[in-house]
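pipeline: protein-struct stage 2 | run 1193 | NAD-dependent protein deacylase
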Amino acid sequence: MSVLTEFKAALAKAKHIVVLAGAGLSAASGIPTFRGAGGLWRKYDAMSLATSEAFEENPSLVWQFYHYRRHVAARAHPNAAHKAIALLSASPSDLHAVAPFAQSFILVTQNVDGLSGRALPPNLPKESQPVEMHGSVFRVKCTKCVYVGYNYDDPICPALGGTEAVFDEDKPGLKIEVEDLPKCPECGALSRPGVVWFGETVDLLDSIYENVLKKCDLLLVIGTSSTVYPASGFAEEVQEHGAEVAVFNLERTKGDEYADFLFIGPCEDTLPKALGVEDKVKG
């Protein structure tokens, strides 16, 4: 029996399906990955850019990095893998055509590019929207008060305009004064990117474990190297209570050891085909 046939049999009996997505989901949309060939983390030390300590030491460079990521994400479009997940998240009839006994279908994404949400139709209930466990590059948080909000301006402030070349064209970073960096619209203090940095707690983690992973009987791991905690432990967590795990990645990764079903190749091709929705997500 082929892996595709076995996976479809698992879908046919699944009741609570969870998708765990990583950077590989958005690679075909032009969003740089971090760990694979040519990944951003090979060129730039993650620990020098994605920690609260780095922001305190050099908010100018960190904001230039996140301006670059905002700039790229704003111009990107959801690919067929995003659309396949969105289809099953938004449409009960399409979900039941794939998984007739499904009671829930939840996306938990490590990505901060917002593409999974943009693939969905507007005004969906919260339970149909992705759980963004690492936040969003379009979210901003005040460093002084409690303000948290979304800003889609590009650039978010005039001083950051054009600095995408620092990362896009490998040019030296600019020295931007703190007073010229993004400000809180409520109190005027320095704002920071609304993402979860290394060393910070995932705000939604308790809810993910209690309301998502404990019920999961089929986990789809898509485009992630399974190296970053806590998401790296999700596959092992669900298998402990009998769930099955399908892994979709461009190449072999550490997470393969937990795969009941393994699909190697571009997830924008393998995922829609495995779910049987390729005709519905073309274009």
